[in-house]
Amino acid sequence: MWRKEEATADIPAPDDRAVRLDRTPAAVNATSSERATIGRSITIRGDVTGDEDLLVQGRVEGSIDLQQHSVTVGADGEVIASISARIVTIEGRVEGNIRAEEQATLRSSAYVRGDITAPRVVLENGARFRGGVDMGDADERAKKTLTASSSRQNRTSETGRSTPAVESITTPALEPASLVAKGNGESTASLRL
Amino acid sequence: MDWPLRAGKAATGVSAAVSPPVRETLERTSPGVAALFEPVHADGTHAVLDLGPASASSFNVYGRFARWIRFAETLSLPLPIYEAADPFRVVPDNPHQPYDLVLAWNMFDLVPPEARRQLVERLLEITSADARLLVVAGIGGARPAPQNFSLVSEDRMRYEVAAGGACYPPILPAEMAQLLEPFRIERAFSSSAGFREYLALRPGARPATWSS
C-alpha cells in the first residue's frame, strides 16, 4: 500500500526546507527591507544605535552608530550628527562627520558639511560638499574592496539572488557633457555641473 | 553663493559687473593643471587641498593621487571674514599629513589685496616643504570675473562664471611672484580665455613620490 521511496521523496528534511525557503526571492526581500525609518515629522536628540538599517527622513541631532548596517539620509532628512555605519548614503542634509566601513555615497541632492572617512566614496554631480575625505591607506582600501566583493559573492551564493551591484570604484565616473570644439583646445559644454 | 565681493560693497578698485554673467560652462585644456600633476605619482598617498567648491569630476581626478582630499570652498567665504585678524584660519590643516597639492584657482583675484598675503601665510602653515601650488589669475585687459573651477581630467579644467560679484584688478606676474614668496613660480601659462595659470613650488627636497 505505501511505497516507501515516494514518501521519502515528498517530505524533505527540515533543514533542507529551511535553506530552500531562505533562498526564495520573497524571503530575501523581506529580510533586506527590514529597516527602521525616522519619519519626516520626527526629531531625535541623542544617540541612535541599533542592529538594522536606518532611513532618516526626519531630523537627528547627536550621533548615529550602526556599524554593521546601512544608513540612508533621505532627501527630506537632516542630520546634525556624526554617522558611523557600513554603508552611508546621503540624499539630504548632513552636518557632521561620516565614517563608512564600506562605502559613502553623496547623491546629487546631498548637502554635506563635515569630513568623510571611507575606503570608497562616491560624489554625484550636483552634490554640495564642504569638508575633507580620507580614503584610507591604498593597500587597506584594496583589501577592503576585495573583502566587500567576496562578502557580496557569499551573500549571492547563500541567497541565490545577487545583491545590488556596488562597483569597486573609488570615485564617480565623469559626467557626460556635449562639447562643441572652439579651437585652441577650448570647448563649450552645454551642461552645467 | 556668497562671493567675497557682492553687491552693496563699494570696494575701491573693483571692476564692476557690466552685464549679468552668462552661466556658460567652458572646458579647455589646462597646461597649468597638467604641470601640477605631471610629476605626481598616482599612488593614493597625497594630500590635496582645493580652495574651490567640491565637484564630482575634480574628486574623480584627485582620487587617483590622493588619500586625503579637502574642498575648503574658501571662495564663498562671507566678506566680513576678511576683516578678521587671521581670516584664513578657517582653511583647515590636514592633521595626518601636510597638503602637497594645492589648487587655489582664482582665489587671489577675489581676496582684498591687504588679505592676500595672509592666505599665503596660511598655506605655508599647512603645506609640506615641497608642495605644488596652482594659481589662476585674470590677465590685464580682460575683465576678470569670479569663476567656479573644477577639473575634468589631469590636463583639462572646466569653469563657469559664478553668480554675482566681481574681482579686484588683475595681479601682474611680477606682483604674483612677490606675493607668493617663498613659493617660487616654476611655470606660467597665458591662455586665450583671459587667464594666466601659475605653477608655484615651495622649495624643499623632493620626496621619493615625485618622479625625476
Describe the structure.
The complex is a heterodimer of chains A (193) and B (212). With 193 residues, chain A is α/β, with parallel strands linked by helices. In chain A, 24% of the residues lie in helices and 41% in strands. In chain A, the strands form two sheets. Chain A has a six-stranded parallel beta barrel with strand order 5-6-8-11-9-7. In chain A, strand 12 (179-183) and strand 13 form a beta hairpin. The longest helix of chain A has 22 residues, at 138-159. The termini of chain A are far apart. Mean pLDDT of chain A is 69; it is low at 1-32 and 148-193. Chain B has 212 residues and is of the alpha/beta class. Chain B has a six-stranded mixed β-sheet. In chain B, strand 6 and strand 7 (156-161) form a beta hairpin. The longest helix of chain B is centred in the middle third of the chain and has 14 residues, at 113-126. The interface between A and B is large, with 36 and 39 residues.
